[in-house]
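Mods, move this if it's the wrong board.
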Amino acid sequence: MIAYTRRMERAITQPGPRVRVGLSGAGTPEPGVLGRHVLADFWGCELPGSEQAWRSLVERAVDAVRATLLDLSIHTFDTGGVTVLAMLSESHLSAHTWPEHGYVAIDVFTCGKTTMPEVGIDVLRAALRPARETVKLVHRGDGVGGCER
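Not the wrong board. Structure tokens:
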């Protein structure tokens, strides 16, 4: 697991496994920010083979984020693609797969002073083992005021 600080790293789209650039605001939310939304694109993944495997993986990621799981929904399409939606007290985690491309689109959005969406991405990265990735952090509600959850 990567130890995150206020100056975390963010991968940007580049050939090869990962290229990282500075990212501010990881860990504790910046003052005036309602939440942090981490968006990840993973290519060349090892996808879980069952809904139960997805459920276990997402539950581990939610625990790592320090979030409260309210509901977890998993839908498998005829094509083999999967959509996973974890409703959290602090917002959500979702994953959408395109197995024919070995691709997963993930987002983890949380508010609160104790949640760590970046660490949820670490859990998913370790399990899915992407060959290439892009990870972005977006501050949500910047200037509105901090979330007290």
